[in-house]
């Protein structure tokens, strides 16, 4: 350990850290734009200048390592003046766009302007206007006037996603971020991370553009179910106090999805599939209990399920690999002795989807196969075997595997092809309407919280299993 002094206070810090990182661990935040903990350090924005005793000039805290006995000032008059000058320089050509900018409310530039500058522009020259909407990809646009050329996005594509798709071209106040190969559209399954790490509102998600203001939204901790990496995510949706009266259908929509930093699962990143989860969750729902495609009450559907189970001799239960650890456990405890169990993959890889890579994306496209297989085994469903009854939990079961005389009961959240064949259909909640845990393919367990209310006539799978277990 080393002893350093920051603003007159002594701290013990680990060797090998930069001044900025060591100060952060001691609770002293030094402003920074270009520095990002997962990327290389270019030292180009200059906002992190600090004074080290005995050094002639102010120094970049993001670049220089701490040494034993170092005395650092982060708030002295000299440092504050330099910080203010850097802010004036960085905002010299920046448009006054905050009112319409998607980053407003979570923009570092905006926050630092209030904290460290607060003055009107000192330039007598007109602002240097740039191309307003450059298309980075079909998902992302770049407002060049807002870009402070910190190079985070370029370094991300070089060092993390390795698509090497972006570069900085031209010099001085003409410098712009561009696709390296203008003729080729940006192909990078991790591209939307650059929107998050852009410290200003230069890189914008087309999907989110002008749709919301971040202060209307709340974030809920969740898990991406797109593959068995189970990346931890934040699902953003309308705050209770900002719910819309006349457009109430919007209150239960996902506004956007961003990563939840989790070192042991996904670090700082997620792939674009997670960003598009709204498209998955906002498909037509199965919301009404049915018997032979006719609407019934939930209690009637449950009763009919119990009757069919009682009457049948040989029953197969198809276990969802989207069920939470809690639901799987309840199934095991309540009905585990009654059926032959087969775990299915609810979703298979889709066309044009990245199947697997060395970054995050994993081959199995279901979030909890690990736990389902641990509890119910991994044997394949025997094609054409004469079961009297098959109970299907979730989506994706191949109906063609069944003997034509086999009766089907389905517990599902979404409409799919089996639903029409099911004698009894009971709608169950999605993972957005309940909380629980998933264990990813590497054996790491994460939690997800409830985002939306469960609709009327829809039941949680765990409650359904308990009801069936009580009377079956
Ligand atoms: S677009 Fe954003 S992340 Fe990229 S260089 Fe400009 S300010 Fe930095
Ligand atoms: S890597 Fe898998 S779990 Fe992570 S964001 Fe992508 S699809 Fe979701
Ligand atoms: S954060 Fe140090 S130069 Fe940008």
What does it look like?
By secondary structure, the chain is α+β, with helices and mostly antiparallel strands. 22% of the residues lie in helices and 19% in strands. The chain has 12 helices and 22 strands. It has a 7-stranded mixed β-sheet with strand order 15-14-20-19-18-16-17. The chain has a 5-stranded mixed β-sheet with strand order 2-1-5-3-4, with helices on both faces. β3 (49-52) and β4 (59-60) form a beta hairpin. The N and C termini lie far apart (64 Å). Bound molecules: iron/sulfur cluster (2 copies) and FE2/S2 (inorganic) cluster. FE2/S2 (inorganic) cluster (FES) binds at residues 32-35, 43-48, 60, 62.
How does the helix and strand content classify structurally?
alpha+beta
Bound molecules: iron/sulfur cluster, FE2/S2 (inorganic) cluster
Sheet with the most strands: spatial strand order: 15-14-20-19-18-16-17
The major sheet is characterized as:
7 strands, mixed
Mean pLDDT: 95
N- to C-terminal distance: 64 Å
Amount of helix: 10-25%
Tally of contiguous helical segments: 12
Uncertain stretches of 5 or more adjacent residues: none
Q: Given the C-alpha coordinates, what overall shape results?
A: elongated
Radius of gyration over all CA atoms, rounded: 27 Å
DSSP E strands, number: 22
Beta-strand content estimate = 15-25%
Features:
472 residues, alpha+beta, seven-stranded mixed beta sheet, five-stranded mixed beta sheet, 22 strands, 19% strand, binds iron/sulfur cluster, binds FE2/S2 (inorganic) cluster
Draw up the topology in text.
Blueprint: E1 2-6, E2 9-13, H1 19-25, E3 49-52, E4 59-60, E5 71-73, H2 77-90, H3 108-117, E6 134-135, E7 140-142, H4 152-159, E8 166-169, E9 176-179, H5 193-197, E10 203-205, E11 217-223, E12 232-238, E13 256-259, H6 272-275, H7 277-281, E14 290-291, E15 294-295, H8 298-311, E16 315-319, H9 325-335, E17 340-343, H10 369-376, E18 389-393, E19 407-412, H11 417-421, E20 424-427, E21 436-439, E22 445-448, H12 461-471
Parallel strand pairs: 1-5, 16-17, 16-18, 18-19, 19-20
Antiparallel strand pairs: 1-2, 3-4, 3-5, 6-7, 7-10, 8-9, 11-12, 12-13, 14-15, 14-20, 21-22
Bound molecules: iron/sulfur cluster (2 copies) and FE2/S2 (inorganic) cluster.
One iron/sulfur cluster (SF4) binds next to α4.
């Amino acid at each position: 350990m080393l002893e350093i002094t920051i603003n007159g206070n002594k701290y013990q810090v680990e060797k090998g850290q930069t001044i900025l990182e060591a100060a952060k661990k001691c609770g002293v935040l030094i402003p920074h734009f270009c520095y990002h903990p997962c990327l290389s350090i270019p030292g180009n924005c200059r906002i992190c200048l600090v004074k080290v005793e005995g050094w002639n000039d102010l120094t970049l805290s993001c670049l220089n390592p701490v040494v034993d006995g170092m005395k650092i000032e982060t708030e002295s008059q000299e440092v504050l003046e330099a910080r203010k000058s850097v802010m004036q320089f960085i905002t010299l050509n920046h448009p006054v766009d905050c009112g319409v900018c998607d980053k407003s409310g979570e923009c570092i530039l905006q926050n630092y302007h209030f904290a460290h500058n607060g003055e009107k522009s000192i330039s007598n020259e007109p602002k240097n206007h740039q191309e307003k909407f450059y298309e980075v990809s079909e998902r992302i646009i770049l407002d060049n006037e807002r870009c402070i050329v910190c190079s985070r996005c370029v370094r991300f594509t070089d060092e993390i996603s390795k698509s090497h798709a972006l570069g900085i071209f031209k010099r001085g106040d003409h410098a712009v971020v561009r696709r390296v190969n203008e003729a080729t559209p940006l192909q990078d399954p991790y591209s939307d991370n650059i929107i998050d790490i852009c410290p200003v509102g230069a890189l914008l998600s087309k999907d989110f553009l002008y749709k919301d203001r971040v202060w209307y939204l709340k974030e809920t901790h969740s898990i991406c179910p797109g593959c068995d990496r189970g990346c931890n995510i934040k699902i953003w949706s309308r705050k209770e106090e900002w719910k819309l009266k006349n457009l109430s259908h919007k209150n239960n929509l996902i506004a956007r999805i961003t990563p939840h930093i989790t070192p042991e699962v996904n670090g700082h990143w997620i792939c674009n599939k997670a960003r598009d989860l709204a498209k998955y969750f906002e498909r037509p729902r199965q919301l009404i209990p049915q018997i032979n495609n006719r609407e019934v009450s939930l209690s009637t559907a449950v009763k009919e399920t119990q009757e069919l189970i009682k009457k049948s001799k040989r029953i197969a239960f198809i276990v969802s690999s989207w069920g939470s650890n809690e639901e799987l456990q309840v199934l095991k405890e309540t009905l585990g002795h009654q059926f032959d169990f087969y775990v299915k993959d609810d979703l298979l890889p889709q066309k044009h989807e990245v199947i697997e890579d060395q970054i995050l994306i994993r081959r199995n496209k279901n979030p909890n196969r690990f736990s389902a297989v641990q509890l119910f085994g991994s044997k394949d469903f025997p094609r054409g075997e004469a079961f009297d009854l098959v109970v299907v939990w979730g989506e994706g079961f191949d109906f063609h595997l069944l003997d034509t005389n086999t009766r089907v009961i389905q517990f599902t959240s979404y409409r799919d092809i089996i639903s029409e064949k099911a004698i009894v259909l009971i709608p169950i909640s999605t993972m957005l309407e309940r909380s629980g845990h998933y264990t990813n393919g590497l054996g790491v367990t994460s939690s997800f919280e409830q985002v939306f209310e469960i609709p009327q006539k829809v039941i949680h799978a765990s409650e359904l299993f308990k009801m069936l277990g009580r009377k079956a």
